[in-house]
C-alpha cells in the first residue's frame, strides 16, 4: 500500500497536520484521526448528507472527498459551529423547532444549513427545501427542519442588523 | 396561602406531562456529541468486513482464504467451518426458524454472508474481502413466491427439507413455512354465499426497507481473563440480544454486557440479531481484541431485515347499503430464505388479524401462508406493530373498493360501518379487544376541516375538464403496546417492560428503562411522566436506557410499545415513589396520610396549605428521617405487564393532483388527525407524526425492493431506493382528539407508527380515487410517476 503523506488542514479554526493514505476519505480522517465524530457516515455515495462538512466555504459530502484533496483547506464541522460556549443560531433553531429526532443526520443538516444561509440569508420555504435537498432525514418529515432554518435565518438577520446599528 | 395560580406556576415550571418542553437529548445531538456505535473506538480495535455471495442461490464448492490471510494487516478470515466447532454457524431466529450465520455449504440469497475478514482497518478489510476465493455452483433460483410451492420448485432450505413440522405447525411443502388461520372460515364462507354484494381484490404490498440513516453495526470486545463479552451494538432490544448471545455462546448472561448507545433510527430494522453481531463477537473471542463491524448502505438495504412482501387477496361481503357483513383475507407472505420475522412467538403473521380495522364487521376469516424464496430474510414490522400496516392497507383499500362498486361516497361507507363509541371495549371477530375509540367524531372533524364536500365538487368539476384529482380517506385503527405477556413473548420472554427510579437526597432522580430510544425522545417523555407522578421537574430526572448492566430487563422499543408499556412502568414506578413519599410526609407533618392532599410538588395538610412538605424536603428526609420501621431511600422498580394492547386511531385525508402527461403526483393536502390517548409531549408527538407520514409517503409513492429473475436485487443503494428529500416531501397538517386508554395508568396509547400505518392506504386511496371515474378500483404501490403514467396511458387519458 502507498505510504502516508502529511497534509495540513485548518479544522474549526485550528491548524492540524495529519498523515493520510492517498485513498483515505476525508470523513475517516475527521472521525478517526481527529476524533471529530459529529459528521456521520450514512450511505458512502454522497446521497444522504450525514457526512456534510464545509470545505473552503462550500458544503461537501466528506464521504466522497479524499483527504488529500482537502490539503491546505479550511474545514468546518458541526463541532465548530458553536462559538465561545454559545450555540450557533442554526443549532438553536434545530433545538427550538424540534428539527431532529435520532440526531444522526443533524450535524450534516446543520452544517449545510449554515452554508445555505450564507448563500441565501432570507430564503423562502421552497428555497430552504431545495437548499437542503442533499441531506436526507428519516425521522422528522422535514417540516420542523425547515422551521429550524427559518428560525436561524431570522436570528442571523437580527444579529446582523444589530451589528450594523 | 397557596392559590390555584401559584400551583399552576409551579406546574408550568416543572415542564411535565402535557408540556411541549424542548428535548433533553438535543444539546448533545446538535453539537455533534452523540455517541453512536461507529463513534466507539477501543484500544487495539480491529475491523471486520463480509465476503458476500454474488448469487442468489448457489452451492459453495470451495473457499480459499490464503490470499486474503497473506495480505498485510489481515488477522483472520472466518467461515462457517470456523464457526462450526463452536456451534455458532447457525442461530435461532425470533420466528422459530434457524438462520445461517455464515453460509453453510450453500447460499440462499444474494449478498448472503459467506466469510468475514478481520483486519487492521476498514480499508484493508475491504481489500481482503476481494482476495477470498469462493467457488460457487449456481442453483436454480426461486424469486416469485407464487411458485414457491410448485412441484418442481427448487428447495431453498435443504437443512429442513422433508421436515413436516415447522416452528408454527405443519409444513405443506419444502418451501412452506407456516399456515396461520384466524376467524371462522365456514361462517364467513356462508355469509359470502348469501351476500347481496361481494367484492374481491388482489393487493400487493411490495417488499420495502426501513432504511434508517445509521446502518447496523457493533463493536465486540471479549475479555478473556474474566470471560466477559461486551458488545456495543445498534439494537432496539438490547436485553433480548443479551439473552440470545448468552444462549448462543454459552457465556453466563451475567458476563454478557450489551450496550446500545445512541441509535440513528431503527424503525424495526434494528430489532433482530444479525450475522455481523455474532461473527464480530466470535472474532473478538478468537483474536482477543475488540472487533468493529459496521455495514455499508448496500449491505443494509440488501441483507438486513426487509418489510412487507405480502401478496394479499381481500374480499368483503355487504348488503346493498354498504353495511359490511364479512371479511375474508388470503395472504401469501414472502419471507425470503430464513423466517426471521420479528414477531411475538405466538403470532407467525404478527397482528395481521387486526384486518377488520375500525369497522364493526361481524364475521371474518384470514389465512396467511409463509413461504421461502431466494431473498434476504427478515420481515420486520417496519414502523408498525407486526403486520398491522399490511392489515390496515387491506381493509382501507377494500372499503374503497366496496364503496366504488356500490357507488357510495367513501366517507359515507365508513360512517355506516364504524364501531360506535358506546361499543367499547369492542371484541373483533378475529380476536382483539379494542380498548377505546371515537371514530365517527374523528372523521367528521377531518371532513369539516378539509371541506370534503367542497373538494368533491372541485373534483367533479375538474374531471369534467379532463383533469386528474384524487381524494383519499383513511380511518384506521392501530394495535400497539406489545404486549400482555399472555399474548406476546420473544423467545419465551414475556413482553413486559420496566422502569427503575431512584430519587436522590437533594430531590433529583435517575430513572432507567428496559426500552431503547432510536430518536423517539424517551429521555424527555419518560422524565415528564415521572416528574408528574413524583412531583419533581422533568429537568431534574436523568433517563438512561440501553446498557444492560444498569437498566432493568425489558423487551425494547418497537411496535410503539415505549409509551404504552415503558411509560406505564414509569407512571407506576412514580406512583410507588409517591406513595412512600406520602408516608414520609405524614410522618414529618405528624398527621395521618388521610389528612394530606397533593399539590403539584408537595403534600399539604387538608385545609391548611401552609402546613406542607415539598417533594425536595421529603426526598431529604427519606435519607435521614423516615418513620420507624421504614427502609431508607426513595426508589421503586416496576415491571409492567399490560392487561391489553392499546388501540390508537386516526382519520386522514389526502388530496392529490396528477399530471396526466407525466404521471407525476402532487400531494396538495394531507390532513392527519391522530388520537393516541393522553398526550405527554405534544411537540414530540407532532414530530413523530411528521416522520411517520413522510415514511408513509415514501412507501406509497416510490419504494420497492425489486429483484430480477436471477434473484439480483435491483437498486440497493440510495441512488435507486427512494428516500424522499425535503423537496418531494409534502406539507403536513395535523390535528388530534384525545380518547384515553382505560387500562393504561395514565391513558397513553402510543403514536409513532399510526401515521405510517394510516397514511399509506390514504395515499393509495387518493391516487386510485383520481381514476375512479374511469372504472379503476385498484392500483398496486408504489405509485411512482412511471407506474401512474402507465395507467394513464392505458386509459388513453394522455391523448392530445
UniProtKB/TrEMBL annotation, chain A:
Protein origin, superkingdom: Bacteria
InterPro entries: 2Fe-2S-bd, 2Fe-2S-bd_dom_sf, 2Fe-2S_ferredoxin-like_sf, 2Fe-2S_ferredoxin-type, Beta-grasp_dom_sf, Diverse_Oxidoreductases
Pfam family, one: Fer2_2
Alphabetic keyword roster: 2Fe-2S, Iron, Iron-sulfur, Metal-binding, Oxidoreductase
PROSITE patterns found in the cross-reference section: 2FE2S_FER_2
Residue intervals of the 2Fe-2S ferredoxin-type domain: 5-81
Protein name: (2Fe-2S)-binding protein
Species this protein is from: Thiohalorhabdus methylotrophus
UniProtKB/TrEMBL annotation, chain B:
Top EC category: oxidoreductase
Source organism: Thiohalorhabdus methylotrophus
Boundaries of every Aldehyde oxidase/xanthine dehydrogenase a/b hammerhead domain copy: 31-140
Xref: InterPro entries: Ald_Oxase/Xan_DH_a/b, Ald_Oxase/Xan_DH_a/b_sf, Ald_Oxase/xanthine_DH-like, AldOxase/xan_DH_MoCoBD1, AldOxase/xan_DH_MoCoBD2, AldOxase/xan_DH_Mopterin-bd_sf, CO_Mo_DH_lsu
Keyword annotations of the record: Molybdenum, Oxidoreductase
Region of interest: Disordered: 1-26
Organism classification: Bacteria, Pseudomonadati, Pseudomonadota, Gammaproteobacteria, Thiohalorhabdales
SUPFAM superfamilies, per the entry: CO dehydrogenase molybdoprotein N-domain-like, Molybdenum cofactor-binding domain
GO MF terms held by the record: carbon-monoxide oxygenase activity
Keyword Oxidoreductase included in the entry's annotation: yes
Protein name (record): Aerobic carbon-monoxide dehydrogenase large subunit
Gene3D superfamilies found in the cross-reference section: Aldehyde oxidase/xanthine dehydrogenase, a/b hammerhead, Aldehyde oxidase/xanthine dehydrogenase, molybdopterin binding domain
Enzyme Commission number(s): 1.2.5.3
Amino acid at each position: 500500500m502507498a505510504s502516508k503523506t502529511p497534509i495540513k488542514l485548518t479544522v474549526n479554526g485550528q491548524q492540524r497536520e495529519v498523515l493520510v493514505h492517498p485513498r483515505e476519505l476525508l470523513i475517516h480522517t475527521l472521525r478517526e484521526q481527529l476524533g471529530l465524530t459529529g459528521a456521520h457516515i450514512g450511505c458512502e455515495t454522497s446521497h444522504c448528507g450525514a457526512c456534510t462538512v464545509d470545505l473552503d466555504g462550500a458544503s461537501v459530502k466528506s464521504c466522497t472527498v479524499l483527504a488529500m484533496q482537502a490539503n491546505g483547506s479550511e474545514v468546518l464541522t458541526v463541532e465548530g459551529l458553536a462559538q465561545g460556549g454559545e450555540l450557533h443560531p442554526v443549532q438553536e433553531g434545530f433545538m427550538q423547532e424540534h428539527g431532529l429526532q435520532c440526531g444522526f443526520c443533524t450535524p450534516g443538516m446543520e452544517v449545510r444549513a449554515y452554508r445555505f444561509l450564507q448563500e441565501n440569508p432570507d430564503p423562502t420555504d421552497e428555497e430552504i427545501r431545495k437548499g437542503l435537498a442533499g441531506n436526507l432525514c428519516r425521522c422528522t418529515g422535514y417540516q420542523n427542519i425547515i422551521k429550524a432554518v427559518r428560525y436561524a435565518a431570522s436570528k442571523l438577520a437580527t444579529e446582523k442588523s444589530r451589528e450594523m446599528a | 396561602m397557596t392559590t390555584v395560580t401559584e400551583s399552576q406556576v409551579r406546574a408550568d415550571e416543572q415542564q411535565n406531562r402535557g408540556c411541549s418542553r424542548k428535548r433533553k437529548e438535543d444539546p448533545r445531538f446538535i453539537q455533534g456529541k452523540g455517541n453512536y456505535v461507529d463513534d466507539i473506538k477501543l484500544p487495539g480495535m480491529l475491523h471486520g468486513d463480509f465476503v458476500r455471495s454474488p448469487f442468489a442461490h448457489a452451492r459453495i464448492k470451495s473457499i480459499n482464504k490464503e490470499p486474503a490471510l497473506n495480505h498485510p494487516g489481515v488477522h483472520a478470515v472466518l467461515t462457517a467451518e470456523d464457526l462450526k466447532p463452536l456451534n455458532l454457524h447457525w442461530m435461532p431466529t425470533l420466528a422459530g426458524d434457524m438462520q445461517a450465520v455464515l453460509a453453510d455449504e450453500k447460499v440462499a440469497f444474494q449478498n448472503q454472508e459467506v466469510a468475514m475478514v478481520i483486519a487492521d482497518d476498514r480499508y484493508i478489510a475491504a481489500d481482503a474481502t476481494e482476495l477470498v476465493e469462493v467457488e460457487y455452483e449456481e442453483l436454480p433460483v426461486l424469486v416469485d413466491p407464487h411458485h414457491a410451492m410448485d412441484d418442481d420448485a427448487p428447495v431453498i432450505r435443504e437443512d429442513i427439507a422433508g421436515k413436516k413440522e415447522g416452528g408454527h405447525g405443519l409444513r405443506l411443502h419444502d418451501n412452506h413455512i407456516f399456515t396461520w388461520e384466524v376467524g371462522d372460515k365456514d361462517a364467513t364462507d356462508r355469509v359470502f354465499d348469501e351476500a347481496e354484494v361481494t367484492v374481491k381484490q388482489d393487493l400487493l404490498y411490495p417488499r420495502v426497507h426501513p432504511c434508517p440513516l445509521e446502518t447496523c453495526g457493533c463493536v465486540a470486545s471479549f475479555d478473556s481473563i474474566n470471560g466477559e463479552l461486551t458488545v456495543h451494538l445498534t439494537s432496539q432490544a438490547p436485553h433480548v440480544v443479551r439473552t440470545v448471545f448468552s444462549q448462543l455462546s454459552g457465556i453466563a448472561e451475567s458476563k454478557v454486557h450489551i450496550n446500545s448507545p445512541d441509535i440513528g433510527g431503527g424503525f424495526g430494522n434494528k430489532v433482530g440479531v444479525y450475522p455481523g453481531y455474532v461473527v464480530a463477537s466470535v472474532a473478538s473471542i478468537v483474536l482477543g481484541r475488540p472487533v468493529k463491524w459496521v455495514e455499508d448502505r448496500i449491505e443494509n438495504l440488501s441483507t438486513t431485515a426487509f418489510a412487507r412482501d405480502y401478496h394479499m387477496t381481500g374480499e368483503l361481503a355487504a348488503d346493498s347499503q354498504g353495511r359490511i357483513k364479512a371479511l375474508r383475507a388470503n395472504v401469501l407472505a414472502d419471507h425470503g430464505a430464513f423466517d426471521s420475522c420479528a414477531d411475538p412467538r405466538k403470532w407467525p403473521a404478527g397482528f395481521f388479524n387486526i384486518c377488520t380495522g375500525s369497522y364493526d364487521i361481524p364475521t371474518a376469516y384470514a389465512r396467511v401462508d409463509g413461504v421461502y424464496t431466494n431473498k434476504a430474510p427478515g420481515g420486520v414490522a417496519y414502523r408498525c406493530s407486526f403486520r398491522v400496516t399490511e392489515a390496515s392497507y387491506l381493509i382501507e383499500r377494500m372499503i374503497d373498493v366496496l364503496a366504488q362498486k356500490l357507488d357510495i361516497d367513501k366517507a359515507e361507507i365508513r360512517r355506516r360501518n364504524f364501531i360506535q363509541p358506546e361499543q367499547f371495549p369492542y371484541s373483533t371477530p378475529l380476536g382483539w379487544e379494542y380498548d377505546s375509540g371515537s371514530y365517527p367524531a374523528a372523521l367528521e372533524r377531518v371532513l369539516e376541516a378539509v371541506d370534503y364536500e367542497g373538494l368533491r365538487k372541485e373534483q367533479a368539476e375538474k374531471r369534467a375538464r379532463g383533469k386528474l384529482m384524487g381524494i383519499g380517506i383513511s380511518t384506521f385503527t392501530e394495535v400497539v403496546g406489545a404486549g400482555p405477556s399472555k399474548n406476546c413473548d420473544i423467545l419465551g420472554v414475556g413482553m413486559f417492560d420496566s422502569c427503575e427510579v431512584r430519587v436522590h437526597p437533594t430531590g433529583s432522580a435517575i430513572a432507567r428503562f428496559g426500552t431503547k430510544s432510536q430518536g423517539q425522545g424517551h429521555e424527555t417523555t419518560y422524565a415528564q411522566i415521572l416528574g408528574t407522578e413524583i412531583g419533581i421537574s422533568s429537568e431534574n430526572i436523568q433517563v438512561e436506557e440501553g446498557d444492560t448492566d444498569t437498566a432493568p430487563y425489558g423487551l425494547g422499543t418497537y411496535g410503539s410499545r415505549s409509551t404504552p408499556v415503558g411509560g406505564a412502568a414509569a407512571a407506576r414506578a412514580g406512583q410507588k415513589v409517591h406513595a412512600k413519599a406520602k408516608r414520609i410526609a405524614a410522618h414529618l407533618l405528624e398527621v395521618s396520610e388521610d389528612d394530606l392532599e397533593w399539590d403539584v410538588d408537595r403534600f399539604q395538610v387538608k385545609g391548611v396549605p401552609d402546613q406542607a412538605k415539598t417533594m425536595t424536603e421529603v426526598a431529604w428526609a427519606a435519607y435521614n428521617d423516615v418513620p420507624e420501621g421504614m427502609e431508607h431511600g426513595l426508589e421503586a422498580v416496576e415491571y409492567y405487564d399490560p392487561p391489553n394492547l392499546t388501540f390508537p386511531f386516526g382519520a386522514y385525508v389526502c388530496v392529490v393532483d396528477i399530471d396526466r402527461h407525466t404521471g407525476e403526483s402532487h400531494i396538495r393536502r394531507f390532513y392527519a388527525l391522530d388520537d393516541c390517548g393522553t398526550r405527554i409531549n405534544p411537540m414530540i408527538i407532532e414530530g413523530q407524526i411528521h416522520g411517520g407520514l413522510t415514511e408513509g409517503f415514501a412507501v406509497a409513492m416510490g419504494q420497492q425492493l425489486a429483484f430480477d429473475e436471477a434473484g439480483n436485487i435491483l437498486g440497493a443503494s440510495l441512488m435507486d431506493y427512494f428516500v424522499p428529500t425535503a423537496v418531494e416531501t409534502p406539507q403536513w397538517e395535523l390535528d388530534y382528539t384525545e380518547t384515553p386508554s382505560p387500562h393504561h395508568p395514565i391513558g397513553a396509547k402510543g403514536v409513532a407508527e399510526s401515521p405510517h400505518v394510516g397514511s399509506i392506504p390514504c395515499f393509495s386511496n387518493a391516487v386510485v380515487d383520481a381514476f375512479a371515474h374511469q372504472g379503476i378500483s385498484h392500483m398496486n404501490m408504489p405509485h411512482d410517476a412511471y407506474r401512474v403514467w402507465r395507467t394513464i396511458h392505458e386509459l388513453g387519458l394522455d391523448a392530445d
